[in-house]
Amino acid sequence: MTLASPSARWRHSELLLPTPAGLYCPPADIHIDPVRPVARALITHGHSDHARAGHGAVLATRETLAIMALRYGEGFAATQQVAEPGEIIRIGEVAFRFAPAGHVLGSAQIVVESRGLRIVASGDYKRERDPTCACFEVVPCDIFISEATFGLPVFRHPPADGEIAKLLESVRLFPERTHIVGAYSLGKAQRVMALIREAGYERPIYIHGAVEKLTEFYQAEGIPLGEIRKVADFDRKALGGEIVICPPSATQDLWARRFPDPVTAFASGWMRIRARARQKGVELPLVISDHAGWDDLLATIRDVQAGEIWVTHGEAEALVHWCGTAGLRAKPLHLVGYGDEGEADPKEEVADAAI
Ligand SMILES: [Zn+2]
Ligand SMILES: [Zn+2]
């Protein structure tokens, strides 16, 4: 069999390769999560570093397309196509399938298959149970593409329900103070609300204006979040003892000072690093991550049984090194433009991990 033959197995880089615009599949002429405007794009999920406006044709899950329309307006792309759950979409001689990634509502891994070679571009993912989205599907493959936001052994995320218990215990101990929880507006905010409900908390939960649209979307999608109230409809001084969910930046704004003696919490994988919490003035750090921590990155690499691992961004070196010790081929792709939303953060905070 030679490469000239139409049925010859692809060399990896012929099926998928990193380019400045993002991962590119030449035989289908399509990019995955492109960071620049392109003719055709597959989008893994709605976070703004992956889902950008201005592409020609966009193919994504129904939820991701709806989230993009909410954020950018209906005209965010020239054309849109829904990838149905389990559907195999053929473009040229490449078959694509969207498999759940467990990251946020609608999030998907993209399975790229042609001539017997299967590559899985996982986007952002986590393995921990999340009541707001479908759980990660293990798709065995030849090459697994992973991010490594929390790709260092220090990042071991505890179970999220224990972190929520800490929040509710604080609410019980300080019934006169407002608990302000910083959480990213797509996914984390709604997951925190759903977990609070699972823990049996029945009072209304108050939300910042920046969280409203996506929270309403999650509710419309049938995710039970209980009674949600808009902070804007109330006098903040009267919200002592209540839980308020807002974007992380708002916890440090003047906006937050108007609540009675606020307790500032932040739900993020970065809260594993105490210095980071201190630096951000977070009184109640909640280690709740929508990205796989170190143990789950390794477990996933084992589960998918790929012989080769590509690492897109984050702590690529540590993960690539571990793959080498495990006898796997691995390489960093050094993709730029990812990590602006969700849990991403600059290098210096990882350096704090040693403290
Ligand atoms: Zn994300
Ligand atoms: Zn991301």
Automatic annotation (TrEMBL):
Which InterPro entries does this one have? MBL (IPR050698), RibonucZ/Hydroxyglut_hydro (IPR036866), Xnuc_lig_assoc (IPR026360)
The source's domain of life comes to: Bacteria
- Keyword terms, alphabetized: Ligase
Q: Does the keyword Protease apply?
A: no
Q: Which GO terms describe its molecular function?
A: ligase activity; RNA endonuclease activity
Recorded protein name is DNA ligase-associated DEXH box helicase
Which species is listed as the source? Bosea thiooxidans
